Fold:
Amino acid sequence: MARATYRTRLETLIANSAISQRDRTFAQSLLSYYERKGRLSAGRVKWVATLEDRYSPENIAAAIQKNGSMLDRLNTLRARTEPTSYANGYTESLINQVKADRRLSERQMEILRKIEAEHDDGAMAERAKWVESYKNDPTLRNDAIVAAHYYQTTGYFRSTADSILDDEAFVPTYSQYNKMVKNKYAQKVLTSHYADPKYQPGQLVTFRANAPSNSRNLDGAYLKRDVAMMIVAIDAAPITSAARGSKVYKLLPIGKAQTLLVEERYIMKARKLGSAKK
Structure:
């Protein structure tokens, strides 16, 4: 049997499902130190032994028996929380702390009571009602999809946005939905999305003076502002800007074979086809 090294001992600690996140992070720092130096200082060696004792099967079993009532309370609460929510992760951290026979602070108990209130029978009934509403009202999901496409380009609400777009069965919590869809930026995006288009397929348009150069880039070349373009499609791509007039059109410049995507605010009705330059 291979001799246990500090590396294997620390890896075993880190992999222990009962270890708290704080202690796991500490164990990872000890392992990083060991891998850099090839040894541990006397103080660090003592901490390895302390953590091994804290999370030994015997001590965990004793802590579970001693704190059975609190663990039942925490496990019941965790079962009511959304799997990827803050409440779920926080409750799991408390479970691991109690399993290690570490006392919860008054602040932790305060947060625990707040999470319990948010997941009592009344709150759970409201959540179930929301889930049914979201599943049965296509407008709610459609708005969430529009907002999700926008937020995939911003970095905000990224996890929720990815879940909405990647998993048709995913239902955001009422709080997640309100934060992502009801804020002023998402509302501007939705206003543009649902607005009647100013231009129709087949109509000729040109660039406005405010059209940025990247909007005029076609296959590596920049189109002149006054080039005439035919509208091929409306709502040709998800809206990625919260500005007014951000509905996206697919345009075909006259005399070109490639199309490009341009926001409504950057185009205007062509005055004369004869004056357009290719």
In short: The chain has a mean pLDDT of 91. The CA atoms of residues 167 and 211 lie 36 Å apart. The beta strands are 204-207, 217-218, 221-222, 229-234, 248-253, 260-263, 267-269.
